[in-house]
Amino acid sequence: MGVAAIYSWLSEQLKLEFEEVRLLKESPRGSVRLIRHLASGKQFILRRFTGNGEVYRRLLDCSCCHLPLIYETAEREGENLVVEEFIQGDTLDFLLQDALFTPAETKRIVKQLCQGLWVLHSMAAVHRDIKPENVILRGNDAVLIDFDAARLHKPQVEADTQILGTTGFAAPEQYGLSQSDLRADIYSLGVLMNVMLTGEHPSRKLAEGQMGRVIQRCTRVNPAKRYRDVLHLMEAL
């Protein structure tokens, strides 16, 4: 079955076997919907977006408690369909509306995100959009979601072909200065930690003590001066 045929088949199956519960997010690049399987009642996330879906394809059949399960992917002429696990819980963005996190809570959550990122990075994938809205706390587990901006690192390429990411959280190299690699995610983790601890970007208010020193190293403008990988960041924490 060709790529276009797979896309058409998945689209048809979704119409026949699922119903939409609600629209969760919509942007010029696509949409995210909560859907329900009619026979079982089980809920899933359906993503439609334009761009590169190769990271979702790499994640098929990958099991990690800090990443959502990806069940189906299809692509046709740059438009992607992804059916993934529905993660029940609250985003960090929602939780930060009421209170900041303690250093101990921040360390625990970021270490778990590092475990998820280690799986991604081992596939040569870079998330490129780590922010409070893309982290869900499911009980005691932090789950990193939304790989729409993710890409595979290609050593032969000098710069990212598409500028994606969230201002404030995206590393400088994501704006076309060079190709983003796993150290771009370390930069974003540093900003995320600071926001969890202070509610502010580190350029405005840096967290105190040892956590502040870790954050400073994560958010160096020069990627070579950041932690080499997430395992080194976990050791520092």
Describe the structure.
- The chain has 237 residues and is α+β, with helices and mostly antiparallel strands.
- The chain has two domains: 83 residues, Phosphorylase Kinase, domain 1 (2-Layer Sandwich); 147 residues, Transferase(Phosphotransferase), domain 1 (Orthogonal Bundle).
- The protein is built from seven helices and ten strands.
- The strands form three sheets. The protein has a five-stranded antiparallel beta sheet. A three-stranded antiparallel beta sheet has the order 6-8-9. The chain has a two-stranded antiparallel ribbon with strand order 7-10.
- A hairpin with a 2-residue loop joins strand 4 and strand 5.
- The chain is globular, with a radius of gyration of 18 Å.
- The N and C termini lie far apart (48 Å).
Rg over CA atoms, rounded to whole Å, is 18 Å
Termini gap: 48 Å
Per DSSP, what share of the residues sits in E-state strands of 2 or more residues?
15-25%
Specify the number of helices.
Answer: 7
Mean pLDDT: 90
Report helical residue fraction: 25-40%
* CATH evolutionary superfamily of the largest domain: Transferase(Phosphotransferase) domain 1
**What's the CATH topology label of the largest domain?**
Transferase(Phosphotransferase), domain 1
